[in-house]
Design brief:
With 240 residues, the chain is α/β, with parallel strands linked by helices. It has a single domain, classed as Vaccinia Virus protein VP39 (Rossmann fold). It is 23% helix and 26% strand. The protein has six helices and seven strands. The chain has a seven-stranded mixed sheet with strand order 3-2-1-4-5-7-6, sandwiched between helices. The longest helix is centred in the N-terminal third of the chain and has 11 residues. The protein is globular.
């Protein structure tokens, strides 16, 4: 989810005014979450429902920069937004001609997506990505800030499943926090690098072209209004 989640213990950005980041076991952190440990399995839906119901709006609603950069270079087609949250990325894509499937674990988040996108061609699907995954193939599959504090969260398996959902000629985009976990988590957790993500994905070089693999600095604004530079780890690959 750009600002959403798909299940599991979250890792959201600590930025309340930045891009619409997403995180969670099946979700994303759209800018504005401070990640906190949540339960997995049966506890995850209740955690994310409480998370979204706690405030009328959690995220900034702005598109994640890496997604905007990638999508601007692509011809609009079908897109899968994993952990759509409140729909910042979903709405941005739909407004530019994409037919989007927005996935989140939270019914409250999906209801906000529905209000946000209006009459645009968006399908809403509720999934805990640690358990179930949307069917079909897509021209763009986006996983933004999909992390968890729970060691049992099958992030690598979910990302491989995301890669398998990319149609021939399509694009996979994975964006995550770099360095240590955001300050709101209260744990010195090392986050995967872009190289780590590529190792986990185990993409066949004969079937995939890696178009982007890098760490990019962005400005994060915390709840206290203080700004700091934080790294994002970005992997973009095209299926041949």
């Amino acid at each position: 989810m750009t600002d959403g989640h798909a299940g599991g213990a979250p890792t959201g950005p600590d930025d309340t005014t930045g891009p619409d980041e997403t995180a969670g076991a099946g979700g994303t952190d759209r800018a504005g979450e401070s990640g906190r440990a949540a339960g997995t399995g049966s506890e995850a839906p209740e955690f994310w429902e409480g998370f979204y119901r706690s405030r009328p709006q959690v995220f900034s609603g702005r598109v994640n920069p890496a997604l905007a950069r990638a999508a601007r270079a692509l011809r609009p087609g079908t897109a899968l937004d994993l952990g759509a949250g409140e729909g910042g990325d979903t709405a941005w894509l739909a407004e530019r001609g994409w037919t989007v499937t927005a996935v989140d674990i939270s019914a409250t988040a999906l209801a906000r997506v529905a209000r946000r996108v209006g009459g645009f061609p968006v399908a809403l699907e509720r999934h805990d990505l640690a358990v179930t995954f949307p069917a079909g193939g897509f021209d763009l599959v986006s996983a933004q800030y999909l992390h968890s504090l729970d060691d049992a969260f099958p992030r690598a398996a979910i990302l491989r499943r995301a890669a398998s959902a990319v149609a021939p000629g399509g694009t996979l985009l994975v964006v995550g926090h770099g360095g240590l976990a955001p300050r709101g988590w209260g744990a010195p957790l090392r986050m995967p690098t872009a190289d780590d993500v590529l190792v986990a994905l185990a993409l066949d070089p004969a079937a995939w072209e890696v178009e982007r693999r890098e760490s990019v600095e962005r400005v994060s604004t915390g709840p206290d209004g203080a700004e700091r530079s934080v790294p994002d780890e970005i992997v973009q690959a095209r299926r041949r």
